[in-house]
From TrEMBL:
Subcellular location: Golgi apparatus membrane
Name the record gives this protein: Heparan sulfate 2-O-sulfotransferase 1
PANTHER family with a match to the protein in the record: HEPARAN SULFATE 2-O-SULFOTRANSFERASE (PTHR12129), HEPARAN SULFATE 2-O-SULFOTRANSFERASE 1 (PTHR12129:SF14)
Pfam family, one: Sulfotransfer_2
Coiled coil feature spans: none
Source organism per UniProt: Oreochromis aureus (Israeli tilapia)
Similarity comment: family membership: Belongs to the sulfotransferase 3 family.
Amino acid sequence: MGCSQNDYLIFLFDITLDPRREAGKDLEDDVVIIYNRVPKTASTSFTNIAYDLCGKNHYHVLHINTTKNNPVMSLQDQVRFVKNVTEWREMKPAFYHGHVSFLDFTKFGVKKKPIYINVIRDPIERLVSYYYFLRFGDDYRPGLRRRKQGDKKTFDECVSAGGSDCAPEKLWLQIPFFCGHYSECWNVGSQWALEQAKYNLVNEYMLVGVTEELEDFVMMLEAALPRFFKGATELYKTGKKSHLRKTSEKKPPTKESIAKLQQSTIWKMENDFYEFALEQFQFVRAHAVREKDGELYLLAQNFFYEKIYPKN
């Protein structure tokens, strides 16, 4: 049985921390994963897997709900969050998820950092999905009224008219989410932000997948972190929730609209970051997964220990 997302509401920054630590506690029980999910990258589909597995695999799932979905925390909230994540013993092991930009825990003097994971998407496909999501919602909560509901203008019509909701500046999202809580990260078109995002992806994230190859991402997480993701691959393939959320009334953009967006420097930078992430993911996958007869399977352990001294 999974953990319902509606079981209870926890005010994340108002908890009472227990300073005591259980003697002999398993190291795996002290693990914290943070999934700072980028909007419209299949994040709800993936998070539903975590909710379905948390009861069976004995861990906690916590949604980081920020005011007005602001991905940047105040300094005082950063301190509270770091303290919660590292010291909230009753909630470990834990899987945190929310639309929050990367936060460097080392700045706050912690000894053990959380494990970061994420998923990104082709930047134009992500923007198109978000554009229609704001107008028509999705099949996850079909009755919920969205911010742009009633606006029937297609994405192509928006691009043709030079509308703000489809402007190249709206592509600038995945880079700042990985760049973090620095002011330069949110300066649209910043080359420094792009390089910092790449640095963080390689050095601070255990694994970053892509929406287009989500099953491979799930499979690799199950192999690397079975404490959390045992059973995830089968659930992804057969579960009702894993493919649940689909944006309604979405129309693919024309080649002309795509070409117009691709002329912008912002698209080139976001696409550069996406292709960098895709190459890294495919590199990691090539050393972990093989395909046979149309089925993927994980490679067995291919290292061992020898010449162990002193001999008993």
